[in-house]
Amino acid sequence: MARRALIIGITGQDGSYLAELLLELGYDVVGMVRRSSTVNFERIAHIQDRLTLVPGDLLDEASIVEVLRSHRPEEVYNLGAQSFVQTSWGQPVLTGEVTALGVTRVLDAIRMTDPEIRFYQASSSEMFGKVQQVPQTEATPFYPRSPYGVAKVYGHWITVNYRESYGLHASSGILFNHESPRRGLEFVTRKVTHGAARVALGLVDHVSLGNLDAQRDWGYAADFVWVMWRMLQQDQPGDYVVATGETHSVAELCELAFSAAGLDWRDHVRIDPRFIRPAEVDLLVGDPAKAERELGWERTLDFAGLVETMVKADLAALEAQR
Ligand code: NAP
Ligand code: F7E
Fold first, then answer.
1. 9 C-alpha to center of ligand 1: Å?
2. How deeply is 122 buried, as exposed, middle or buried, from its count of CB atoms within 10 A (0-12, 13-18, 19+)?
3. Could you tell me the distance, in angstroms and rounded to a whole number, from the CA of residue 283 to the centre of ligand 2?
4. Chain region(s) in the chain for CATH 3.40.50.720
5. I need a surface site. Which of 66, 269, 283, 320 has the fewest CB within 10 A?
6. Which run of H or E residues covers position 195?
7. What is the pTM of this model?
8. Nearest CA to ligand 1 atom 3
9. Does 122 sit in the ligand 1 pocket, CB within 6 Å?
10. What one-character DSSP code corresponds to residue 35?
11. Would the CB of 223 count as within 6 Å of ligand 1?
12. Which fold has domain 185-217+247-281+301-321?
């Protein structure tokens, strides 16, 4: 009989890639989706008829219990979150309810319905924030710099705590930034690749950004979902840094993206203080040695290839709309 997995956050960037992967691996894939007044299944439309989509919300524990009782998954991937760092200053309590306490609601629902379920928590390099070590490893102390980062630290530690308190097979992937043509338009990579494509097509003449000096360890989202699945196939649960080991600035991102669209970024990027954050994470670069050794982690696309892929996808999509 096919194994069954539940993805919380299936409508998001990572949820859509993970759903594709698990279908390829022969799983029955159940996705928990929250109610909204309009359908937002764009990222999973191409596989929707192969998925079982069920209602539920990280703010409502009974709905999670009901999903677990009715669908009996063997693996649960919690990718659901208020995931945009900038929004977390404007909506800090909501971010805490969804991104932090939401994890406890899922873990508690697992503990009460079926403690044999294997659990994946989407932890984040934002937990390292004002970095205490370069590069960051599983042993680097956390120093989050936003309400989002603080909420993710809570989610991470409650996952460790339920593992140690109740013996759950609960793992935490400390994933560094990962991007794709399916990335939300508000995140800097997609904002820049989509912006460069729009400038190239004459739709706008510039993109407004904040801090161009911030450095990130950017990888390709489709590579990262494989490692989530690998964590749940281990005999023992654990915590893993997943990163490329390379860092690049927002300015370098702009240079590559605009050049892939045949443009010079200096002519089309403006600084707008609205996009400067109250507290910044200046530099992230991860050391993925443990994930490489124990999970066989490797990336398939380097940074330049990723940016070029995203620009080409944005150009093609915008041209198709004309
Ligand atoms: P994303 O595109 O923003 O997707 C977030 C998902 O969470 C969406 O499906 C969203 O549903 C869902 N969600 C939001 N609030 C919810 C609620 N109250 N109840 C149930 N579901 C809710 O994020 P992503 O980039 O795929 O990231 C996946 C996870 O990894 C997130 O937890 C994120 O914080 C974490 N993470 C991401 C990165 C990265 O670089 N991408 C790195 C480290 C960690 P709607 O579609 O209805 O909004
Ligand atoms: O910002 C700078 C900004 O919003 C990256 C989420 O997936 O990864 C993501 O969080 C950097 C920051 O991602 C703009 O100040 C400059 O330094 O793309 P971002 P993030 O904050 O790193 C982590 C790992 C997660 O877990 C999160 O869920 O780019 N930046 N100018 C800008 N950023 C944005 N968004 N917009 C700008 O105009």
1. 5
2. buried
3. 11
4. 4-178+218-242
5. 320
6. helix 188-200
7. 0.99
8. 83
9. yes
10. -
11. no
12. UDP-galactose 4-epimerase; domain 1 (3.90.25)
Q: Ligand 2 centre from 163 Cα, in Å?
A: 30
The bridge status of strand 248-249 relative to strand 215-216 is antiparallel
- In short, whether 101's Cβ falls inside 6 Å of ligand 1 is no
- Which CATH topology does 4-178+218-242 take? Rossmann fold (3.40.50)
Residue 80: HSE in the Cβ half-sphere, 13 Å Cα cutoff: 29
**pLDDT for 97-142, tens place per residue?**
999 999 999 999 999 999 999 999 999 999 999 999 999 999 999 9
Ligand 2: residue whose CA is nearest its atom 23: 177
Closest ligand relative to 85 C-alpha = 2
The neighbour count for residue 87, using CB atoms within 10 Å, is 16
Q: What contacts 21, CB < 8 A, 6 or more positions away?
A: 225, 226, 229
User: Can you spell out the DSSP letters for 230-299?
Assistant: HHHHSSS--EEEE--S--EEHHHHHHHHHHHTT--GGGTEEE-GGGS-SS---B--B--HHHHHHH----
Instruction: Calculate how far, in angstroms, residue 146's C-alpha sits from the geometric centre of ligand 2.
Output: 11
What residues does CATH 3.90.25.10 cover in the chain? 185-217+247-281+301-321
Gap between the Cα atoms of 312 and 193, Å rounded: 9
Give yes or no for residue 154 CB within 6 A of ligand 2. no
Task: Compute the distance between CA of residue 300 and CA of residue 278 in angstroms, rounded to an integer.
Answer: 35
Q: Give the number of the ligand closest to the Cα of residue 101.
A: 1
- Cβ atoms of 125 and 176 within 8 Å: the answer is yes
